[in-house]
Design a protein that fits this description.
Rossmann fold; 8 helices; 3-stranded antiparallel β-sheet; alpha/beta; binds 2-amino-2-deoxy-6-O-phosphono-alpha-D-glucopyranose
Length: about 250
């Protein structure tokens, strides 16, 4: 795991966009694993700005999102389908036939998950997976206790996760209780992983991430076993780590 320290949210987003653009430039038909949430919004904004200024093309890019709420229609403004369309897909020249998200309304969820994993494999696997991190250490929606062997599956969301995401909904009761998420094994198969963290609310989990052994009670700790993981975090998110520790992890 290589740590890159950013001054603030804006710098984190700019650095993250650079990593993604390097990937796209080195392989114009890259398969990108994408994330939702507040942390990655600025990164999408930077990619859109670059697309407008430099005409970087997404014509041959394929994308797979990490997760989707169960039971929300694609049109629901809180669905991750709607988030991706609004904040990224509609703003770059990516053909919609090349963007994939789990279907949270699938009748047969097991079949949906299997098909999703197969599709990723069929397109050659994920070259670069973008990740945020939950305050409880979840990646995607792999909550504490998730198996490291899991592929795409249906999960029950922790109350704390529903509370953290309630800010987007009218009330906590409206936050779905379940979601479909790529599993930890699916995420670990990505050739490269880019995890972003910003803000004081992520400082405790980042401290734990760098100090804890690999444990499924903090799912993100598995990332230390991945050969090519970059973490870009801002100063607030790193504020519980000593300067010397930050230097050590930056190597
Ligand atoms: N399922 C998403 C994750 O993919 C995201 O990384 C995380 C952090 O969200 P945020 O960036 O808004 O803090 O929580 C959500 O629940």
């Amino acid at each position: 795991m290589k740590l890159i320290e950013a001054k603030d949210y804006h710098e984190m987003s700019m650095l993250a966009a650079e990593v993604i653009l390097d990937q796209i430039k080195s392989k114009t038909d890259s398969v990108l694993g994408l994330a939702t949430g507040g942390t990655v919004l600025g990164t999408y904004q930077q990619l859109i700005l670059d697309h407008q200024r430099n005409k970087t093309t997404y014509q041959h890019i394929k994308t797979f999102n990490l997760d989707e709420y169960a039971g929300l229609s694609k049109q629901d403004e809180n669905s991750y389908h709607a988030y991706m369309k609004k904040h990224f897909f509609d703003e770059v020249n990516i053909p919609s036939s090349q963007t994939f998200l789990p279907n949270g309304e699938a009748q047969d969820m097991k079949a949906e998950c299997e098909t999703y994993d197969l599709k990723i494999e069929e397109l050659g696997g994920i070259d670069l997976q973008l990740l945020g991190i939950g305050q409880n250490g979840h990646i995607g929606f792999n909550e504490p206790g998730s198996s490291f062997e899991s592929n795409t599956h249906l999960v029950a969301l922790e109350q704390s996760t529903r509370e953290a995401n309630a800010r987007y909904f009218d009330s906590i009761e409206d936050v779905p209780t379940h979601a479909v998420t790529m599993g930890i094994a699916s995420i670990m198969k990505s050739k490269k992983i880019l995890l972003l963290a910003s803000g004081i609310q992520k400082s405790s989990i980042l401290y734990d991430l760098f100090h804890s052994d690999v444990t499924n009670s903090i799912p993100a700790t598995i990332l230390i076993n991945h050969p090519d993981t970059i973490i870009i975090a801002d100063q607030e998110a790193l504020s519980k780590l000593h300067q010397d520790e930050r230097k050590m992890f930056a190597k």
